[in-house]
Amino acid sequence: QVQIVESGGGLVQPGGSLRLSCAASGFTFSSYTMFWYRQAPQKERELVAHITGAGISTSYADSVKGRFTISRDNAKKTVYLQANSLKPEDTAVYYCYTRVRGADYWGQGTQVTVSS
Known about the structure:
Blueprint: E1 3-7, E2 10-12, E3 18-25, E4 34-39, E5 46-51, E6 58-60, E7 68-73, E8 78-83, E9 92-100, E10 103-106, E11 110-114
Parallel strand pairs: 2-11
Antiparallel strand pairs: 1-3, 3-8, 4-5, 4-9, 5-6, 7-8, 9-10, 9-11
């Protein structure tokens, strides 16, 4: 079955960096676009970035453009989110998502807290 597991969150000071990882299994990873979303307390879940199956095309929310980079390693079936120059407003639970054969799959999320 499809499984998605995020890791790499934590507490970081403003201006710091984190690399989030999302390990996937149960489907042909390289064939599917992967997404990172985030949800801050009392806010809607928002799309942060996505990357196509071959890793050729990416896109970012305006709020993270120039600071975050999404990438993937299809051999490891893992997608990454490198988050630099973190701000307090980046504090949220970060989720990895994909849609496989018409079904939605979410990971359990990883908490990122940006605070001094």
